[in-house]
From TrEMBL, chain B:
ABC transporter domain ranges (all copies): 7-236
The UniProt record lists the keyword Zinc-finger: no
Listed name of the protein: ABC transporter domain-containing protein
Pfam families noted in UniProt: ABC_tran (PF00005)
Keywords: ATP-binding, Nucleotide-binding
The organism's place on the tree of life at top rank: Bacteria
Organism of derivation: Flavobacterium palustre
């Protein structure tokens, strides 16, 4: 045990004395969460739009007031004919035009249906989509208010209800996503690099000739990263909650336990990589290409899995990160307990055991 | 030099697939001697040594090192030997003191023992002012001497040196060999691989490996007489030619 502690102490010296490690460990999580939180977001704020009101009655004025009162939109211009639409889009002045049909108010009363057209500049499809959704939400809200006072009620032809994330806040998807990416990065990449580093320097040979057994060597290398990953996960959750208002509906204990499970999954992948790779560079490339890219692209962090082509959907099942994101989203947003996410948890445990067994099998320390 | 065997190798072989890296070698090393293990690159000396230090399993044959069988008691073998690899084997980003503490620790030395050893080692090497300097900032010659001292921290019966003087200047090599002599004088057995033939002259006995087999095992003086030449370099060339 004393030997083991000495080993861990040495490992911390390596980490704390290496500027790059320190940056990846502590700078990266904070930078990433701030970036995703403030810059890379699907939310819109003060988007410039134009209004084409052909009806110009009291009802359209109410809706326009509602739109301009929301913090999402800024009415940049009011235009008079459809011929102007093309030119204002081309100038890039506005992202969307909201058009009210002729006799909007009258149609609403007679046929119980008013028509509004939303034209968006879809060069940025995500923003266009969000604008449409937000405008719809405002219209819906208006119709509900009107219906309270009017009998018989006007018809509502769309009904949208957004559960768990009614404001469609990006923060709710990126906090679990960033946490997954960071845990993968720290646990898998950093450990595989730190193990291959010793191989490259020749110190691994010296350690293996020492009375330490190979298992102790590997555990000693891995332990500091378990510790640091837990700290990282905590920092991300705290930032998510206090800076971005991420809710945690479920139990913190379950969240911590699942996170530790995922850390172990990632570590076992890191060990597997360090068994195959002989140099730090190879280990880094393998971690980035083999782990980071799938985590970012196929885990459902950025691109929804349900809209991927079927082959990719099938492949996404073997990405541990996918299951972890499902688990922590369920805990944070829906307050899920273990009897809801036991299946995903079992899959993660199974994957971890598989990676560990594979590592043991591959565990031939080839020294040239 | 006593006749007490400290390494006894019998019919040791190592195969990698169809390739026979070490082919049925047998030899003994006696307590307190400086044993030179020579051979060209690829002759099998590193593979043979790895079996002796317990990190590679022999395909067949047996070897007893410091009274323990490498086939069955590799862990005990490891406790009783010291090892210095050809790549410089300490941590550059740790200070001299931290390196000594770490390596002492993994060999199970107590805190007091480590303290004592550190003080002694530092004064022997004249490194009093460098104790808290990073090892990476030291010149190569000092690193090598330090590395050798660290391999001896736990007072092993045998120390294995794998090409210890690669890349250092002749003066440092000379000093390094003085350290080796001093240690051998205390009764520690030195098992050293090298490809510097002039260094072979410093050994009590040398074995020369060619293509997996031991082709010669004698004192340098006898070998030179036997082959009627004046230097070990010529002995080596003659042997290699014979095999071809």
């Amino acid at each position: 045990m004393k030997r083991f502690l000495g080993f861990i102490k040495k490992e911390f010296y390596h980490i704390f004395r290496d500027k790059r490690s320190m940056f990846i460990l502590f700078g990266m999580p904070i930078a990433q969460i701030m970036l995703f939180g403030f810059a890379i977001t699907n939310e819109i704020n003060n988007v410039n739009i134009a209004i084409l009101d052909k009806s110009k009655d009291s009802e359209t004025q109410k809706i326009i007031n509602k739109i301009s009162a929301s913090k999402y939109f800024h009415i940049e211009e009011t235009i008079n004919s459809e011929s102007q639409i093309q030119s204002i889009f081309e100038k890039g002045k506005v992202k969307a035009v909201v058009i009210f049909e002729n006799h909007f108010s009258k149609n609403l009363q007679t046929s119980k249906q008013g028509k509004v057209q939303i034209i968006t500049d879809a060069t940025d499809p995500n923003i266009a989509n969000t604008i449409t959704n937000y405008t719809n939400a405002i219209l819906l809200n208006y119709i509900q208010e009107v219906n309270k006072t009017n009998i018989p009620t006007y018809s509502i032809d769309t009904q949208t209800q957004l559960y768990y994330n009614p404001e469609l806040k990006g923060v709710f998807t990126f906090v679990p996503g960033v946490m997954t990416v960071i845990l993968m990065l720290v646990s898998a990449m950093m450990t595989s690099i730190s193990i291959t580093r010793e191989k490259e320097l020749g110190t691994m040979e010296v350690l293996l000739v020492s009375p330490l057994n190979p298992l102790q060597v590997i555990l000693g290398k891995v332990f500091p990263y378990v510790f640091l990953s837990i700290i990282n996960a905590t920092v991300i959750v705290i930032l998510g909650v206090f800076v971005f208002g991420m809710p945690i509906q479920g139990s913190l204990f379950l969240l911590a336990a699942e996170s530790i499970l995922f850390i172990i999954t990632a570590l076992s992948l890191g060990i597997l990589i360090s068994n195959i790779a002989q140099t730090q560079q190879t280990a880094m490339m393998m971690s980035l290409m083999g782990l980071m890219l799938p985590v970012i692209i196929l885990s459902g962090f950025i691109f929804p899995i349900s809209s991927m082509p079927l082959p990719l959907q099938i492949i996404s099942n073997i990405i541990p990160a996918k299951w972890f994101i499902i688990i922590i989203k369920a805990i944070m947003l829906k307050g899920a307990t273990i009897d809801i996410i036991w299946k995903e948890t079992l899959i993660l445990i199974g994957m971890t055991l598989f990676f560990i067994l594979l590592s043991i099998k591959k565990y031939k320390i080839r020294l040239e | 030099m006593s006749q007490e065997k400290i390494i006894a190798v019998k019919n040791l072989s190592k195969k990698f697939g169809n390739f026979i890296a070490v082919n049925d070698i047998s030899f003994d090393v006696y307590k307190g001697e400086i044993f030179g293990f020579l051979g060209a690159n690829g002759a099998g000396k590193t593979t043979a040594m790895k079996m002796l230090i317990g990190i590679s399993k022999p395909t067949s044959g047996e070897a007893v090192v410091a009274d323990f069988d490498v086939n069955f008691q590799a862990e005990m073998v490891k406790k009783n030997i010291g090892y210095m690899s050809q790549k410089f084997s300490m941590y550059d980003d740790l200070t001299i003191k931290e390196n000594i503490t770490f390596f002492g620790g993994i060999y199970g030395l107590s805190r007091n023992q480590i303290k004592e050893k550190t003080a002694q080692l530092i004064s022997d090497l004249g490194l009093e002012n460098e104790l808290n300097k990073l090892v990476g900032d030291l010149p190569l010659g000092w690193k090598q001497k330090l590395s050798f001292s660290v391999a001896l921290l736990h007072e092993p019966k045998i120390v294995f040196l794998d090409e210890p003087t690669g890349g250092v200047d002749p003066i440092t090599r000379r000093q390094f060999w003085e350290m080796i002599y001093a240690e051998a004088h205390k009764g520690t057995t030195i098992f050293v691989t090298t490809h510097y033939m002039d260094e072979a002259e410093y050994c009590d006995r040398v074995s020369i490996m060619v293509e997996g087999k031991i082709e010669a095992l004698e004192s340098p003086k006898n070998l030179k007489q036997q082959y009627k030449v004046t230097s070990m370099n010529e002995v080596f060339l003659k042997l290699a030619r014979n095999v071809e």
